[in-house]
Design a protein that fits this description.
Blueprint: H1 2-18, E1 25-28, E2 31-34, E3 42-46, H2 58-71, E4 75-78, H3 88-96, E5 100-104, H4 121-134, E6 140-147, H5 159-175, E7 183-188, H6 196-202, E8 213-217, H7 232-237, E9 246-251, H8 263-267, E10 276-281, E11 294-295, E12 319-320, H9 324-334, H10 379-387, H11 391-394, H12 415-428
Helix pairs in contact: 1-3, 2-3, 4-5
Length: about 425
C-alpha cells in the first residue's frame, strides 16, 4: 500500500513537472487570460467516454489529444470524475497538446436538486476532493458547481443554493492557497430564465459569493440559420455589460444533418467575440444521440457477445465522423476573434442588479441572504427567498448537515447519451 502511494505521488509529481511550462488560465473582468497575458478563447469539445471518469487512461487520452489538436481544439469539458483516481497521465497528455480542462465538481448523487434544494457538508466535501485533485494541474481552466440545475421558472428557487455552492467552493479554494482557478456555472438555455439567472449568479456587492464565470448550453443555431434568426443576437444583447466571462458550455445543434457549425463564425466574430469567450461543442464521442465528432469503430447491437453496454465502443483509435469533424475544423481554422492583452485591459464593469421576483419566471427576490451550509429547505426558507428577507441566513442550520446528498440523477444537457449508457451498463452487469 505504501509503495503504491509513493508510486502515485511520484507519478503525479513527474506529470506536474512536465506540465510546469503550461500557462495557467485566470479570469479578469469579463475575459479569460493565459498567464502570459494573451486572451484565452475556448475551442472545446465535451469529453465523457465513460460515466465515471474519462481521464484515467493515459494512452487513450494521448490518442484523443492528438486528434483534438488536428481539430483545432484547445479545451475539453468533463462532466464527472472520480477524485480518488490518478489523472496525471491524462492531464499531461492534454497539456502537451495545449488542451485545457473545465470539469464539473458534482457527481450523479451530489448535484443540487432543484425541486428540494440542499447544500450540505457531504456535497461540499466531495466537491473539495475534485478541487484538491485537479488544482495541481496547470491546464485546469475552471470548475463548474452545477450543470443545468434550473430548468423552469418554478425551480429558480434553487438559485441561492447554487450560489451558496459557489461561495463555499471559492472559500475552500482560497483557504487552501490554491491558484484562483475560476469557479462558475453551466446553465440550460431556458428563455424564461434569461437573463435573470446569469445576472443573479453575478450580482451583489460580495464578490466572494458571485461566479467567476457563467456559461450556457445552447442549441439554438440549427442548419442554415443566422445571427438574428437563431436568437444569438438576443443572447449577445443580454451580455454587453456582463462583468464576468461568459461562453457556450455546450452547443452544436445536429438537426438537420450534417452539422456545419456556422455559428462558430458568429461566436468568434465581431458580433460576439468582444463579449463571449468561445464555445464547447457537444460532443467528442459518437453515441446514439448522434452528436459525436469521432467514433472508435462501428456500433454493434448491445446484445451481441462482448458488446459494450450501449453498442458504442468507447476506446481505441479515434476516427473522425465525416463531414462533421472537418466542418468544425475548417470553421475554427478561419475564425479570428477580437482580442486584447491582459495589460491593456482595464475593466470598469460592475455587477448587474439582482433580479426581482417575477411569479412563475423568477422566484428569487433580489440579493437575498444565501442559505448556510446544511440549512434545510422549508417553507420559511422559501418565503425568505421569494420575499427577499434575510431569514435564510438567520434560520438555524439543520442538524443533518452531514446527511447524504440528494440522489436526483442529472439527465439534462449532456445526460441523454450518458444516462442511456448508465442504464445499459446496469443491464450488462
Amino acid at each position: 500500500m505504501m509503495f503504491r502511494s509513493l508510486l502515485l505521488a511520484a507519478t503525479a509529481f513527474a506529470a506536474t513537472a512536465v506540465c510546469a511550462n503550461v500557462p495557467t488560465i485566470s479570469a479578469k473582468g469579463a475575459k479569460f487570460f493565459f498567464s502570459n497575458g494573451t486572451q484565452y478563447f475556448i475551442k472545446g469539445v465535451a469529453y465523457q467516454l465513460t460515466p465515471d471518469d474519462p481521464l484515467v487512461d493515459g494512452n487513450q487520452c494521448k490518442l484523443d489529444a492528438s486528434l483534438m489538436q488536428k481539430l483545432g481544439a484547445n479545451t475539453i469539458r468533463v462532466y464527472h470524475v472520480d477524485s480518488s483516481q490518478d489523472h496525471a497521465s491524462c492531464m499531461t497528455e492534454f497539456a502537451n497538446a495545449g488542451i485545457y480542462l473545465f470539469v464539473d465538481l458534482d457527481t450523479f448523487d451530489t448535484q443540487i436538486n432543484p425541486d428540494m434544494p440542499s447544500w450540505n457538508q457531504t456535497q461540499l466535501s466531495l466537491f473539495e476532493k475534485v478541487i484538491d485533485e485537479f488544482q495541481k494541474y496547470p491546464n485546469t481552466a475552471g470548475f463548474f458547481v452545477g450543470n443545468e440545475v434550473l430548468t423552469t421558472g418554478n425551480n429558480s428557487i434553487a438559485a441561492p443554493y447554487v450560489k451558496a455552492a459557489v461561495r463555499d467552493t471559492k472559500a475552500y479554494r482560497n483557504s487552501k492557497g490554491y491558484r484562483d482557478i475560476p469557479i462558475g456555472y453551466s446553465a440550460a438555455d431556458i428563455a424564461s430564465l434569461r437573463p435573470m439567472l446569469q445576472n443573479y449568479l453575478a450580482c451583489g456587492t460580495n464578490t466572494s459569493e458571485a461566479v467567476d464565470f457563467y456559461s450556457l448550453n445552447a442549441y439554438e443555431w440549427c442548419g442554415q440559420s443566422s445571427y438574428e434568426q437563431s436568437g444569438y443576437s438576443q443572447l449577445e444583447a443580454n451580455v454587453t455589460s456582463y462583468n464576468v466571462p461568459i461562453f457556450f458550455s455546450e452547443t452544436g445543434c445536429n438537426k438537420p444533418e450534417p452539422r456545419t457549425f456556422a455559428d462558430q463564425a458568429a461566436i468568434f466574430g465581431p458580433d460576439m467575440s468582444p463579449n463571449w469567450s468561445g464555445a464547447i461543442i457537444y460532443e467528442w464521442l459518437q453515441e446514439a444521440n448522434n452528436f459525436g465528432l469521432i467514433s472508435y469503430g462501428p456500433s454493434v447491437a448491445p446484445t451481441a457477445p462482448n458488446a459494450p453496454p450501449d453498442g458504442f465502443t468507447r476506446s481505441g483509435t479515434p476516427t473522425p465522423v465525416s463531414p462533421d469533424f472537418d466542418n468544425l475544423s475548417k470553421q475554427w481554422a478561419t475564425v479570428s476573434p477580437s482580442s486584447v492583452s491582459a495589460n491593456a485591459y482595464s475593466p470598469t464593469l460592475t455587477p448587474p442588479p439582482c433580479p426581482a421576483f417575477t411569479a412563475g419566471n423568477w422566484e428569487v427576490n433580489g440579493d437575498v441572504a444565501l442559505p448556510t451550509l446544511g440549512q434545510t429547505f422549508d417553507q420559511q426558507i422559501q418565503a425568505s427567498i421569494t420575499g427577499g428577507s434575510s431569514a435564510a441566513a438567520s434560520a438555524s442550520a439543520s442538524s443533518t448537515s452531514r446527511a447524504g446528498a440528494n440522489g436526483n440523477v442529472e439527465i439534462a444537457g449532456m445526460g441523454a447519451g450518458l444516462s442511456g449508457l448508465l442504464f445499459a451498463a446496469m443491464l450488462w452487469l
